[in-house]
Amino acid sequence: MNEVRYTAPHTLDEAVSALAAANGTGRILAGGTDLLVQMKAGMVSPGVIVDVKKITEMTTIDEKGGSFRVGAAVSGAVIGEHAGLRKAWPGVVEAVNLIGSKQIQGRASAGGNLCNASPAADSVPALVAAGAIVTVHGPKGRREVPVEKIHAGPGRTTLERGEIVVSFTLPARPPGSSDAYLRLIPRTEMDIAVVGCGVSLTLQGGTCTSARVSLGAVAPTVLLVEDAAKALIGSRLDDKALEAAAAACRAVCKPIDDKRGTIVYRTKIAGVLLKRATAIAAERAGGR
Amino acid sequence: MAKTHVSTTINGEPVEFLCDASQTMLDVLRDQLGLTGSKEGCGSGDCGACSVTLDNRLVCSCLILAPEADGHHIQTIEGMAQGDQLHPLQKKFVELAALQCGICTPGFLVASKALLDRNPNPTETEVRYWLAGNLCRCTGYDKIIRAVMEVAADMREAAR
Q1: Of B4, B59, B70, which is closest to A107 when you measure between CB atoms?
Q2: Fewer CB within 10 Å, N- or C-terminus of chain B?
Q3: What is the per-residue pLDDT for B1?
Q4: Average confidence score pLDDT of chain A
């Protein structure tokens, strides 16, 4: 690794200044489970590493009126131990906790998972299904962006130079709501999703009154599948509605063919995971 | 370029060192502080041989920059035994031959202790998932899992 400078500012403005001063050679360090691997592999050689873990807003979880704000640098282990989040957003928590081993969970964050911009990032479909809003802080100030607008392609984001993903806001939602995330991997743990599917829904009297569906690893970016949600909303999650939603999922798949899954297989599995994740979310919502 | 000064606590003792910003905590532990119990297997967070705890959180020391340790507490395999008295996990690994070449063993011990500190009564499935980030190419894992399960039972008995 080349000569690098390390800085650990206490405020976002200091972090933004440090990135601006680095003139494009700055890299943000949260858990480091992607950055250090990329540095060792020679894929990136930053001039300045900006450690964001001393910035309180990025390392804390708050709840206000049923809405949660999760700092982008909070580790998976801390998210997994948060009783309120586990109850309100079990799908988001299970997705974050699928990333890597316990050792990786001790450091890796949802913000890092998002910014690494892998189409197979486990936490992202769950956050997209949840309708998470990302708070971004940069040289031009603050903006709020729906999480599905962040990915631009494999390894690429819509973030502008010097912008930092600060936190995720998960909205409050009515009773009878829950979510789920499922991924298919050839192993039982520590693997990369062949397909991932997040479903968030609300049931009232057995009828689905709102839903969001997201797919990972079947396109260059994580997808929000609005047609699948439409097929679920208004239904009692009967077989016909589930098959229509599964068909909508299959229709948006544009996956790659590789050693972990063919196009045909990934496309078929997207529909299967939709049905299973919907069933889990519905059960958690108290509807089954 | 100027070295970074780091003040940290390792195995309960205050430790200060100078490092480059890009050095990993594992490199400093092994090459500067002489704590060679933590091993480098993959260097990319896949094998768990470098496992330590950072503020009681299980992590791979190969994926921590040494300057990040400033102001934090690190526990390594060297801090596990009390003097000549091995930790129950260490004793049981020896008794059940839960190791062969031994390269992965410090990581397994640190990870297993982190599990039992949180969950004194894990199921076998929980033990296997918890240790999924530690790779062993010799034992086939079964003896390791059995050792952890037995220690958990012994420690629960002792605590009654």
Answers
A1: B59
A2: C
A3: 63
A4: 96
Whether residue A1 lies within 8 A of chain B, CB to CB, comes out as yes
pLDDT at A187 over 90: no
Which stretches does DSSP call E strand in A147-286?
A: 151-153, 156-157, 164-170, 177-184, 195-204, 207-216, 223-224
A/B interface, count of CB pairs below 8 Å: 91
> What mean pLDDT do residues A259-274 have?
96
How confident is the model at residue A189, as a pLDDT?
82
- Identity of the residue in B22, B43, B132 whose CB atom sits nearest the CB atom of A4: B22
* Secondary structure (DSSP) of A117-139: T-TT-SHHHHHHHHT-EEEEEET
- Token pair for B100: 């062969």
- DSSP calls for B68-103: GGTT-EEE-GGGTSBTTB--HHHHHHHHTT--SS-S
CB-CB under 8 Å, A190 with B45: no
Would you state the pLDDT for residue A1?
47
pTM of the full structure: 0.96
> Which residue of B4, B43, B58 is in closest CB contact with A103?
B58
